[in-house]
């Protein structure tokens, strides 16, 4: 694992010591190299995880997330080049350093063995994200957004710390590799119910669950593009990953405790998708669609069947890439017209046809078109929840329809129809932007050829 | 103040605390506290303005009352045990009196009312000594009598202190008052763990002193005492803005900075002793502290506070104050978390 951690840490001195003309090139190139190295972790053994050291391990659940994280850093750097072009050199280097620190912490989080180390790094990812949102966001609402983000997550995760220490005292260890074999069933007494709540609420806030999702539209909308990308693609998946790890310790109380959260997720899925139909702000639409997809992951993790776990893992990867590319597309709009309002930039297909092709592909991925892994994931989750309870298929089916509705609404509003007069003189698409979209969409569509990489440990 | 006089006074302060920490005779404890008190009054009054004299008077009155309460506890202990040795088996009545007296000295709730007002009235360097050095002596006595302290009293004071430290600091813009409420809250954390593991109290005290020392030094470097003047730091020394950011987050107890170590260790010790709701309550109210530290971070480092146009080109003299030991202190205030396994040497 050090072969990824030390080069990522070394990206920081490299950024500070590079020549001004080379900072973007150096950091992007070397982070691509690091992601190439991380691909080797996808070669998982069939029956067990790769135990790399006492502190780090990687199994079929964390390896795809690790690859997603390392793949995303060069893409974030490519996406940020334009809005940082007017800043001074020191501030550019500081921004890149924040992204690198966040990357380092995320890599260590996804591969941690000890649950306390996972907790510390989980909390530690808040600080660079807060700095990115608050220092480099564009509107005054970013101050509130940063505070909501920080405090929602902290209030959820402080009970998790107490619960983890309690579990360490009763079970003797918090090393994930040992605990998966030592976990005793816990009955549904009141104190165990509170233990369950303490363990899960942190991840529910992070996912986010429908009732606790208030921080997400604020944070996603106010963050600069790299902040939005990393928030949507990776930080939400920390919640899903944590939930999948910690539910091992919480059986069979989960069967009873899951009901309120299942209801909130199922209803929240439809609510947030419906809100997307009425959004004027493009980034806000994509943010609410993230809540909707993550609600599917919550439903999948709480059902705890093999198919639903496979679906949850695949959905996390698929949604990571999809929402990241949607944010990049929204950002390419924002950089040209400096507004996030959708109807201000209509009919872009006439003016930027290649970008319209990326919009189409990204929208098709978002609405879970076969044979993308988005479809495989959603299908697995829908089938698993149907077997859990027949009634959920009505809600899931409605959600799929409404997802298709708002995605097509977004596509048609921005791309089709007559263009508005004032966008005739926008810049044409840069090669950097086209490369960015390709690098997002190519892995997404190639994964449909071999989805077993992202189907997780149950496959 | 003239250097020889300052030397004598500081030596008296230091030797007062040393006497309290190292003696085994209760009368010497009281003498040490009084030496400390009398010698620190001129330090608190370094500036000759009425506000400083008012602060020094308040400090003197509260601390003298506390010393008298302590003396009462000592005499009761003498009555019941017949000897003056500082030992662990105290009479319960004497223990309660001494705990209350030391709580007044430390500024624990509900005896915390003097801390913000005294800290506000004195200069930054005196405030530094008040909030760091002056805590050592009472905590060392509490450490020695910790097995006999009434747990209910201590826990009630601890929880109240954390809550008052959190809620009290929310409405402040004066930095010295913010540091005072921060001190009240940290004292609450320290007393919460005192019954179960006094070693963790020493750990918390050490890290708290390091962080507060660093914060005060950075504030002295800028000569700022209000949030408004702290927000101009980007103009004077931009490096300090990022240091204030890290330091405030460390004071708030965010991982992966050093300020998280005492909170983590204290919650661990408390859960080992079957207390679950209390560390959760303490941790949640510590988030209030984090809110006003975040507010300071926002005005200093993350946004550019409103200023008029001439501020942007302001020149200032370079700071000539002696910032002894500041870089190592900054490193210790923020990067000590990976060293937590070294705590096992304490067993």
UniProtKB/TrEMBL annotation, chain A:
Broad class of enzyme this protein falls into: translocase
Keyword Transferase: no
GO molecular function, one term: NADH dehydrogenase (ubiquinone) activity
Location within or outside the cell: Mitochondrion membrane
Reactions catalysed: a ubiquinone + NADH + 5 H(+)(in) = a ubiquinol + NAD(+) + 4 H(+)(out)
Family matches, as Pfam families: Oxidored_q5_N, Proton_antipo_M
InterPro entries per UniProt: NADH4_N, NADH_Q_OxRdtase_chainM/4, NADH_UbQ_OxRdtase, ND/Mrp_TM
GO cellular-component term (any): mitochondrial membrane
Domain named NADH:ubiquinone oxidoreductase chain 4 N-terminal: residues: 1-109
Residue stretches making up the NADH:quinone oxidoreductase/Mrp antiporter transmembrane domain: 112-401
Catalytic activity, EC: 7.1.1.2
A biological process from GO: ATP synthesis coupled electron transport
Membrane-traversing stretches: 21-42, 54-73, 94-110, 116-133, 145-167, 193-216, 228-251, 257-278, 285-303, 309-330, 351-373, 393-414
PANTHER family: NADH-UBIQUINONE OXIDOREDUCTASE CHAIN 4 (PTHR43507)
NCBIfam families: NDH_I_M
Family: Belongs to the complex I subunit 4 family.
Protein name listed in UniProt: NADH-ubiquinone oxidoreductase chain 4
Annotated source species: Panthera tigris (Tiger)
Gene name, Swiss-Prot/TrEMBL: ND4
From TrEMBL, chain B:
The keyword Transport appears for this protein: yes
InterPro entries on file: Complex_I_Subunit_2 (IPR050175), NADH_DH_su2_C (IPR010933), NADH_UbQ_OxRdtase_chain2 (IPR003917), ND/Mrp_TM (IPR001750)
Location in the cell: Mitochondrion inner membrane
Keywords from the named record: Electron transport, Membrane, Mitochondrion, Mitochondrion inner membrane, NAD, Respiratory chain, Translocase, Transmembrane, Transmembrane helix, Transport, Ubiquinone
Reactions catalysed, as given in the entry: a ubiquinone + NADH + 5 H(+)(in) = a ubiquinol + NAD(+) + 4 H(+)(out)
Keyword Membrane: yes
One function term, GO molecular function aspect: NADH dehydrogenase (ubiquinone) activity
A Gene Ontology biological process term: mitochondrial electron transport, NADH to ubiquinone
Domain NADH:quinone oxidoreductase/Mrp antiporter transmembrane: 24-286
GO cellular component, one term: mitochondrial inner membrane
Record function comment: Core subunit of the mitochondrial membrane respiratory chain NADH dehydrogenase (Complex I) which catalyzes electron transfer from NADH through the respiratory chain, using ubiquinone as an electron acceptor. Essential for the catalytic activity and assembly of complex I.
Assigned protein family: Belongs to the complex I subunit 2 family.
Complex and partners: Core subunit of respiratory chain NADH dehydrogenase (Complex I) which is composed of 45 different subunits. Interacts with TMEM242.
Protein name per its UniProtKB record: NADH-ubiquinone oxidoreductase chain 2
